[in-house]
Write a structure and sequence with these properties.
Mean pLDDT: 83
Radius of gyration: 19 Å
Low-confidence stretches: 12-34, 36-45, 250-259
Number of strands: 13
Order of helices and strands: HHHEEEEHEHEHEEEEHEHEHHHE
Distance between the termini: 30 Å
Strand content: 15-25%
Oligomer: single chain
Helix content: 25-40%
Largest sheet: 6 strands, mixed
Structural class: alpha/beta
Strand order of the largest sheet: 6-5-7-11-12-13
Length: 343
């Protein structure tokens, strides 16, 4: 059954050009730009069946076994967290969004728990064992946007996104720095990654299916590759927010290895990563980011910049977007791409 869902889901995304660098959600998301590039013209089909099937056959039985109960609307207690470590066909399916939608009695995983993913159980347990405080001199957030990278579709919303976040963090009093577009080289970006515990990259990204370590973030002056990042000493890395397309999509025949940018950032040292499964709209990305940081900054545990509540922050931001939209396939595909990895 998982193979059937995988084939249906991948075929569904490929048919509507949501997996490639040449995809566009102009019609889907009513947005002037989107973090990839080509007209979307066909009607979404079968999404309800896939999400409902995952809910009935995979997710709901697990929640019942864990005795997780559905949260009441006015309950202000934090939901429990759950980590998904899917392999095989399930590695390409949105377990974090499983549910019955479009009905009066709709329910989903978001009503029961806050989801995160991990590429391997050992990577999660080892990180828990070695988790330590981040020194004050590196605790902080570095942001960049790359709205007009060469040979890439313009994404002007990234500029609004990072400037808004910069203002939010500045008002909070945490250490923050923003460098935009042509003012940042790939080499300088790597230096900032060592100087700041957390990063927010608002740009295009591309998965290299044949050479996963050459998967890259696209800057104005070149490519920032996963292999370059993994060569740096990021012992104090905390949160990486990858506001780009398909940063958590691996290669279909390597699904057991979960090879993608999000997993690579965890391997490079980051404790938690916010990533996307496919194309994201330039319209909604800034508001998701704003709501994410609103929550994160309101739940800081100290004077520095702390990403430990990032899973809850993403859950909060997605719920706000969900309630602003509806349960149509068009709206579901606006928020389902966002995923959380790690602690």
């Amino acid at each position: 059954m998982a193979n059937t869902y995988q084939q249906d889901f991948l075929g569904h995304l490929q048919q509507h050009q949501l997996l490639g660098r040449q995809a566009d959600l102009l019609d889907l998301l009513d947005s002037p730009q989107e973090r990839v590039g080509r007209p979307y013209t066909k009607k979404i089909k079968d999404l309800y069946n896939i999400l409902g099937g995952l809910w009935k056959h995979v997710v709901k039985p697990i929640l019942e076994a864990l005795a997780f109960s559905k949260a009441e609307p006015l309950n202000k207690e934090q939901l429990p967290r759950i980590w998904w470590c899917p392999t095989g066909p399930l590695a390409f399916l949105p377990l974090h969004a499983a549910g019955n939608y479009g009905k009066e009695d709709s329910e989903s995983i978001l009503d029961y728990a806050v989801s995160s993913y991990t590429p391997a159980i050992t990577s999660l347990t080892n990180r828990v064992k070695t988790d330590s405080a981040i020194p004050a001199d590196v605790s902080g957030l570095f942001l960049t946007c790359q709205p007009e990278a060469i040979k890439a579709y313009p994404i002007p919303g990234t500029t609004t996104e990072v400037r808004s976040i910069y203002d939010q963090v500045t008002k909070h009093g945490a250490r923050v720095e923003l460098v935009e577009g042509n003012d940042l080289t790939v080499g300088e970006g790597l230096v900032y990654m060592e100087k700041f515990s957390s990063i927010h990259l608002a740009c295009h990204a591309s998965q290299d299916q044949e050479e996963p370590l050459e998967s890259r973030f696209i800057f104005h002056d070149g490519w920032l590759t996963l292999s370059q990042i993994m060569q740096k000493n990021l012992k104090n890395a905390d949160l990486a927010f990858l506001s780009a397309c398909e940063t958590s999509t691996g290669k279909k025949d390597l699904s057991e290895e979960n090879v993608h940018l999000a997993a690579g950032m965890l391997a490079a040292g980051y404790r938690r990563v916010v990533a996307t499964m496919w194309a994201i709209g330039d319209q909604h990305a800034p508001e998701v980011s704003k709501d994410f940081y609103d929550y994160l900054l309101a739940h800081q545990s100290g004077s520095g910049f702390d990403g430990s509540q990032s899973a809850y922050a993403l859950h909060h931001a997605i719920q706000k977007l969900r309630h602003k939209l509806d349960n149509s396939p068009k709206s579901l595909l606006a928020w389902i791409p966002y995923v959380h990895f790690g602690l």
